[in-house]
Amino acid sequence: xxxxxxxxxxxxxxxxxxxxxxxxxxxxxxxxxxxxxxxxxxxxxxxxxxxxxxxxxxxxxxxxxxxxxxxxxxxxxxxxxxxxxxxxxxxxxxxxxxxxxxxxxxxxxxxxxxxxxxxxxxxxxxxxxxxxxxxxxxxxxxxxxxxxxxxxxxxxxxxxxxxxxxxxxxxxxxxxxxxxxxxxxxxxxxxxxxxxxxxxxxxxxxxxxxxxxxxxxxxxxxxxxxxxxxxxxxxxxxxxxxxxxxxxxxxxxxxxxxxxxxxxxxxxxxxxxxxxxxxxxxxxxxxxxxxxxxxxxxxxxxxxxxxxxxxxxxxxxxxxxxxxxxxxxxxxxxxxxxxxxxxxxxxxxxxxxxxxxxxxxxxxxxxxxxxxxxxxxxxxxxxxxxxxxxxxxxxxxxxxxxxxxxxxxxxxxxxxxxxxxxxxxxxxxxxxxxxxxxxxxxxxxxxxxxxxxxxxxxxxxxxxxxxxxxxxxxxxxxxxxxxxxxxxxxxxxxxxxxxxxxxxxxxxxxxxxxxxxxxxxxx
Length: 523
Fold this sequence. Notes:
Its cofactor is [8Fe-7S] cluster. Residues 49-447 form the Nitrogenase/oxidoreductase component domain. This protein is of the alpha/beta class. Among the domains are: 50-190, 3-Layer(aba) Sandwich (Rossmann fold), CATH 3.40.50; 204-307, Nitrogenase molybdenum iron protein domain (Rossmann fold, 3-Layer(aba) Sandwich); 457-508, no CATH class. It contains 23 helices and 14 strands. The chain has helices spanning 50-59, 73-78, 92-95, 104-109, 112-125, 138-143, 147-157, 176-190, 216-226, 241-244, 258-272, 284-298, 301-326, 339-343, 346-351, 365-374, 387-397, 406-414, 432-448, 450-455, 483-487, 489-492, 497-508; strands at residues 19-21, 66-70, 98-99, 131-136, 162-166, 204-210, 230-236, 252-255, 276-278, 330-333, 354-360, 380-383, 401-404, 419-421. It has a six-stranded mixed beta sheet, sandwiched between helices. A four-stranded parallel beta sheet has the order 3-2-4-5, with helices on both faces. Strands 7-6-8-9 form a four-stranded parallel beta sheet, sandwiched between helices. Helix 11 links the parallel strand 8 and strand 9. Helix 1 (50-59) packs across helix 8 (176-190) and helix 8 runs parallel beside helix 11 (258-272).
């Protein structure tokens, strides 16, 4: 077993079994770290808890819902506005967050009365919203508050409202993935089948495991519309509460993120006979294959192929431009769950980058299995790394960029490694053909950013002359410079306006001046 032991974790010998190096011709069973286990005492994990997995990942993207946490306000604050789950109702679910704000006195005397009071106040404050989700936290679970009974009382008193209860305390699983399971099963047990939808097409799907990060869902929904497919519900990005109650009437469940939502797909198949089709919206090749599969299921392959041909013709030249400039760049792919294997192979094949490390904080063994299988030999695979291990990996591997979340990403910036937000994106959406080019553009900009290049210079050694000042492009022109500055060869290239900046970048990156294809704006 090719285990990798971090120097910083030698005092925690159990951690050695949570990291492996993939060797040439390595059988996947001998290159798999231990995963989806309770965090080892002594290592400071950056995982989210089960409550976070239920509310933050799955629940909050529902747009027309009051999302209220029954627990301390800190739980709610930690899961508010940290992802860009946009919606078409003016982002109600992002603007507001609700909590019962449990205190010590509620732990002693109970908090059911304060919960009911908060539910009524929230509905009164937002009379246009008639739906609510209540999330249990560790505090309310430990004292045994009967949240379901309180919710039923309110619904009996106010027949026009509907409330979903998600019992997902933080300790309900070893990571946030436990919360994914909790809310999936609770939703199908409590709400699916309670609304009958209007069917307008011969081809009806539930789009499952899609959270509309910066508009991902809208991109895919446009492709489905062009194929003549009705999206009955989206679980849960930009999803409507009542639409999600009607999931039982779909002809097909199209599953994007298997890690977070395969549970409800499997139950819909068992209970209602709805088949499951796994797809991938990232990358030209995987997305094309996915659209063809959906078309094949409904017998409309020609519609799918027409979309593929049009989109590839429009965006492939620009993707190739970026690929030529990203070829051989080293990437640490540290996104969390399913993006580990959604991205591992396709960023190598379609963008030319080399994946030197993969990790997951809450994924299961299956996620790591697929991720390792799809990355290059020599890659370092890590389960649930702590901050010191992440730093050691970056110092050792020397990546050009990492794809991860904000917490490890901000740490990477401190050691001058640029990062892209793999969870909420930098400039998304990243799904779809245009989105994939947008992702490549963000990688290019992260690596070749002039500001990033300047961060490598030690100004204490006057790599940029500090005694003369620093003039940037467009601040001054050559004619405005004093004669002594313009005659100084060490300073002139930094003060010559935009043309001189371009020449400086050409020296560092000879292909910088080559024109890339002009982007064709969508009509």
